[in-house]
Amino acid sequence: xxxxxxxxxxxxxxxxxxxxxxxxxxxxxxxxxxxxxxxxxxxxxxxxxxxxxxxxxxxxxxxxxxxxxxxxxxxxxxxxxxxxxxxxxxxxxxxxxxxxxxxxxxxxxxxxxxxxxxxxxxxxxxxxxxxxxxxxxxxxxxxxxxxxxxxxxxxxxxxxxxxxxxxxxxxxxxxxxxxxxxxxxxxxxxxxxxxxxxxxxxxxxxxxxxxxxxxxxxxxxxxxxxxxxxxxxxxxxxxxxxxxxxxxxxxxxxxxxxxxxxxxxxxxxxxxxxxxxxxxxxxxxxxxxxxxxxxxxxxxxxxxxxxxxxxxxxxxxxxxxxxxxxxxxxxxxxxxxxxxxxxxxxxxxxxxxxxxxxxxxxxxxxxxxxxxxxxxxxxxxxxxxxxxxxxxxxxxxxxxxxxxxxxxxxxxxxxxxxxxxxxxxxxxxxxxxxxxxxxxxxx
Length: 443
What we know:
Blueprint: H1 2-16, E1 26-28, H2 30-40, H3 42-57, E2 68-81, E3 93-110, H4 114-180, H5 186-220, H6 225-228, E4 231-233, H7 246-256, H8 258-278, E5 284-301, E6 311-326, H9 334-400, H10 406-440
Parallel strand pairs: 1-4
Antiparallel strand pairs: 2-3, 3-5, 5-6
């Protein structure tokens, strides 16, 4: 008898311990979990940095539409000792310095529209990087939603285990009362004790499953797994899931699916590259200008008094404006090959987009078919739970009135647990499929 009370007390302690951790619970909704996940995602942060790089590059200067201006400065110094009878400076020494500051500017004023084509390409590259951000966000949404609802279902299962454990504890009190009046024996007490301890073990196992689910949620939002043990999920499970119309989803898929949209952008970039290659057939006109000032100074020594030993010199200012026109007549066929290869790459991009549309459309059809079957199963499981709950209620009443034995009661309880677990499995499978469909169509 003492062994029973020790085991029962241990189970009561297990049951009464906090369901989260020793820290204060932290309420967290699905929306809050998504916000934390997006904020902490390194992949989203990397994608956003790439967008910033593309945005920095998307300007007229990068496209070649602005002039190039360079400034320069040269300085040359020299010393000469003249020993030449034919020179009027024979026998003298000269020290010279020439300093020339200059500013040069060049501007391609025409190259077959290359600037406009380049600017369009840079805008498309920025849009492409923004598409990568959306894909990174979708991955976070998928992971957070799935892990949140998994934890939510595990929490419901834990509550169900707690409910059954409470019923088992009440049966112990009930059987003790009956034993006092001689209406029950030791065998009855042992059977109920065995059921109570089994329910306690089931609760502990489910409690561990719930903790693991919370830790997986914490990992999905990129926080410490142990921090997830403090979470109190504030959402509730709604077993009524919406139905979707196949054609409407397909239309949204082809319009909003981010992977398809990214390939459409790649298709536009490939078409842009063809136009860029064809620019090579057009003349190139470059406007350039320059301005410089040349300062020259010299000092002659050794020929006094004919030449005084002092610096003499002056400056020369030069300015120029030039126009250069170039046209490629022949370059070994590189221009034609470049155009042909760009056209082939454009065809490849189109085929890749069509292939992705085919893959995504088939994936949507399979997901929708699976979802519809899961909804039917969910409806059946709900009916099964309702029936099992009524059966359990009647069994409890018959057990208390001694018209049902304990073994049959445990069988009915086990059926009730299986029915609820089946309902939660059906809901979780259908919910995960719905999340997949919603993200797939870009909602």
